[in-house]
Design goal:
This protein is α/β, with parallel strands linked by helices. Helix content is 33%, strand content 27%. It has seven helices and ten strands.
């Protein structure tokens, strides 16, 4: 079976500054992986490359079997819309917009009609335990609830790969534990999940940990 993520001898430089050096990584379908390292280690660069938000300076990135470098901008957008879900530390929910419509926005670029977008958004909210909050606005939710809404938005398109960037970074420990339980639950139903984190306690709860330092993978186990 084709891996969801393949990085082959990938490097990335920004104006002569090396952010990533000769990184090779394979993530199989159904894995739950933590990418862990301190600030400035190269985690965010890896996230951007895996999420097809950036291109490597050298090496090859393949996502769900597709060689990213060979795809047109339109094909890249389609790959992101249909294959990759993003969860960010800052939630990025639209203020004044209902929870169900915030989640439905995750399907904007898939060609799905409004009625079906809202129906699938309601189902995704049920999946994350917030079906009863569908009509609430972000300011009416706790931090943990807002992160669960962000996760629902990320998975409403049923992506093969979920990228969670510091998903517990703005949460108290109890809410953070709840988000990690949710990510594990989604993984158990077949979603491949990558958690990018600087928190070694978070990483320690995950079955596979890829350690990054100074732009290199220094551990994988």
């Amino acid at each position: 079976m084709t891996p969801v993520v393949e990085l082959r001898e990938v490097g990335r430089e920004y104006q002569g500054v090396v952010a990533l050096r000769d990184v090779s990584l394979t993530v199989e379908r159904g894995e739950l992986v933590g990418i862990v390292g301190p600030s400035g280690s190269g985690k965010s660069t890896m996230l951007n490359l895996i999420g097809t938000l950036d291109h490597p300076s050298r090496g090859e990135v393949r996502i769900d079997g597709h060689a990213v470098r060979e795809l047109s901008d339109r094909a890249l957008s389609a790959l992101r819309a249909n294959t990759i879900g993003f969860v960010f530390q800052q939630f990025h929910l639209a203020a004044g917009v209902s929870t169900v419509d915030n989640v439905a926005d995750g399907l904007l670029y898939t060609g799905t009609g409004l009625g079906q977008r809202r129906q699938r958004a309601a189902e995704a909210l049920e999946t994350v335990g917030l079906g009863h909050r569908a009509g609430h606005r972000p300011h009416e939710l706790s931090g943990g609830e807002r992160q669960r809404v962000a996760i629902a938005r990320a998975v409403v398109g049923r992506p093969a790969l979920l990228l969670a960037d510091e998903p517990t970074g703005n949460l108290d420990s109890q809410s953070g534990d709840g988000v990690l339980r949710l990510l594990r639950s989604l993984n158990e139903t077949g979603t491949t999940v990558l958690v990018i984190t600087h928190d070694r306690e978070v990483a320690a709860t995950l079955p596979r940990r890829v350690a990054v330092r100074d732009g290199r993978v220094v551990g994988d186990g």
